[in-house]
């Protein structure tokens, strides 16, 4: 038993990213406590006030098979989960048929950032100690991985995380594409709805650094990053791609809606007061992320659109599909993007 326990800790701490850490924690809890349901919830309200994500989950279905649940942003949450996230205390409900439900808070730097939910046979004291220990190991490891995945200045997801996540996001696109095709006969489907990748670059940022110094430049980057986190949905991932360049990966939507959203964001930035500078403007290049595209070509397309936006006046959003062919060839002789 002791050897099994040590091996389970080795298994959990072997993970190098938060997504696989979550799956590993759930499998371990399942193995040792034989729970019926296990769910990891993430509190998104810290970044933009829109609720909770069901991040990873394992369920016992009606035919007694365990199935992995899908990632999902929840519109409503139970009062027990809300209370756990609010109070940072464990909530326990005892059911009549020797079953219990438990919500355990997950803290990052003393703030509740999520919760682990389990439904299982009533836990005896040793099992409770074990479960609490797993949660604490998870918390400690989450703190380290979270620091690794984020940019030190802006706290946005960093370039390394982007390189790792983009492949995963494209794979999810293919799965969603298949699902939509099979469900198409049953529900209304928007054929023009796909994911989008936007490359966002500050205009004339070098001038800000050269005129007011690097510290002022850093302050502008930090404020812009905060605005981005607050403006876009938590399900739209925002990365600091490098220097003064950011990447946003949007959930499936139409070109019209994405255009409106980005135009509204640019307007907000134009009217935001940044230290020293009169007005900050952005140039944005955007490309469609169709299933079966290579990640590198999506990034290159967004970069070509950005290049065109810069060369045709800045302070605008350009879709790759609107870049004239001649300009695409011209930008191909320019900088190459380094990926992976
Ligand atoms: N303060 C600060 N500056 C940075 C950071 N990373 C990159 N930069 C600066 O960002 C500037 C980018 O300049 P350019 O690539 O010439 O672009 P630009 O001046 O924004 O011009 P356009 O993109 O053509 O509008 C350089 O001066 C870099 O030193 C950072 O972390 N902090």
Automatic annotation (TrEMBL):
Pfam family, one: GGDEF
GO MF, one example: diguanylate cyclase activity
Catalytic activity, as annotated: 2 GTP = 3',3'-c-di-GMP + 2 diphosphate
The protein's required cofactors: Mg(2+)
Enzyme class: transferase
E.C. number: 2.7.7.65
Top-level taxon: Bacteria
CDD domains tied to this protein: GGDEF (cd01949)
Cellular component annotations (GO), alphabetically ordered: plasma membrane
GO terms of biological process kind: cell adhesion involved in single-species biofilm formation; negative regulation of bacterial-type flagellum-dependent cell motility
Domain GGDEF: 193-322
Xref: SMART domains: GGDEF
Protein name: diguanylate cyclase
Native source species: Pseudoalteromonas tunicata D2
Lineage of the species this protein comes from: Bacteria, Pseudomonadati, Pseudomonadota, Gammaproteobacteria, Alteromonadales
């Amino acid at each position: 038993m002791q050897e099994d326990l040590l091996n389970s800790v080795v298994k959990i701490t072997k993970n190098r990213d938060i997504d696989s850490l979550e799956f590993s924690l759930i499998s371990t809890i399942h193995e040792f406590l034989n729970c019926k349901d296990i769910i990891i919830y993430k509190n998104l309200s810290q970044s933009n006030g829109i609720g909770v994500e069901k991040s990873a989950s394992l369920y016992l279905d009606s035919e007694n098979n365990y199935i992995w649940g899908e990632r999902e942003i929840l519109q409503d949450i139970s009062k027990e989960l809300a209370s756990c996230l609010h109070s940072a205390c464990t909530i326990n409900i005892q059911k009549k048929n020797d079953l219990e439900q438990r919500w355990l808070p997950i803290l990052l730097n003393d703030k509740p950032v999520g919760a682990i939910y389990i439904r299982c046979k009533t836990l005896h004291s040793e099992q409770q100690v074990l479960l609490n220990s797993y949660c604490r190991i998870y918390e400690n490891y989450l703190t380290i991985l979270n620091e690794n995945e984020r940019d030190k200045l802006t706290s946005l997801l960093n370039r390394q995380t982007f390189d790792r996540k983009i492949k995963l996001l494209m794979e999810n696109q293919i799965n969603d594409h298949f699902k939509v095709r099979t469900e198409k006969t049953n529900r209304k489907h928007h054929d023009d709805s796909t994911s989008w990748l936007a490359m966002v670059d500050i205009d004339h940022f070098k001038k800000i650094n050269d005129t007011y110094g690097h510290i002022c430049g850093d302050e502008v980057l930090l404020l812009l990053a905060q605005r981005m986190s607050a403006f876009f949905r938590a399900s739209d991932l925002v990365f600091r791609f490098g220097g003064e360049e950011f990447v946003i990966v949007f959930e499936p939507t139409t070109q019209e809606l994405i255009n409106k959203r980005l135009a509204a964001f640019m307007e907000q930035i134009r009217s935001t007061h940044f230290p020293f500078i009169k007005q900050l403007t952005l140039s944005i290049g955007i490309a469609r992320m169709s299933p079966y595209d290579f990640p590198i070509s999506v990034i290159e397309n967004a970069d070509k659109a950005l290049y065109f936006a810069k060369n045709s006046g800045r302070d605008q959003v350009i879709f790759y599909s609107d870049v004239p062919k001649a300009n695409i060839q011209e930008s191909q002789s320019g900088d190459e993007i380094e990926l992976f």
